[in-house]
Amino acid sequence: MSDTLPTLETLSLSLADKVATVTLNRPDKANAMNWQMWQDIRSAMQWADRTPEVRAVVLQGEGKHFTSGIDLTMMMGLQGQIQDECDGRMREKLRALILELQDTLTSLERCRKPVLAAIHSGCVGGGVDLVSCADMRYCSADAYFTIKEIDIGMVADVGTLQRLPKLLPQALVKELAYTGRRLSADRAQAHGLVNEVFESAEATLEAALQCAREIAAKPPVAIWGTKQAIHYARDHSVEDSLRQMGWLQGAIWSNAHVREAVLAMKHKRAGAFPPLSALTPFKSLG
What we know:
The protein is α/β, with parallel strands linked by helices and 286 residues long. Helices cover 49% and strands 14% of the residues.
């Protein structure tokens, strides 16, 4: 393997069939997202992005809940870190902290490989921010989603209010954000937040892995380009997105990949496609 599996304090990683499984692994704390977990999530996504052997990622949680959201102990500690006798400096520290946490979650979107979330039981607060960044979401029948920030006196500030309105009707987002109510698995599926609901956490994970394996069998460059096009279209006009699509297709088109895909379909066999290139962090060069 070009890049070995990193050891992370709050996550566990595995790789099989070209699919990386990233597991939130603080079950004794309901996978509460402490500072280390935020850093580990970004590290895991960067590893998946730069590793050619990885063609898709499945994100899951260990234990009773997917995640109970941001660790409240971390929040209290961070309040002390941003304290400053100058009010302006304190607010600038807070802004920098928020941008840091936002960047961690955006790493799921920056990853060239699709990220699929397998969600069971509670997906609370920061967990909603996290799965809103995933390409697809599958969940168990007991899963629920809660924008919990309103109940601790703050505005959700690391992506939920920006991404959920692209995934759910705005009035529903407002209901959830203003009240802190739970969104059930069935209602989440009815409104398009999740792709499918399964009876158990185990069935949910297997469905996500099966879809990820199907993705991993497709041409990686075409998958990357498709992800880029969809995310660009989400945030731009149709005209701008069509123009960008022309440049994108012109950049990634491969006669060899198209030929191999057609031959594989014709002969009813799996296609043989080269992986995306390995990405080397600049700090490791020289």
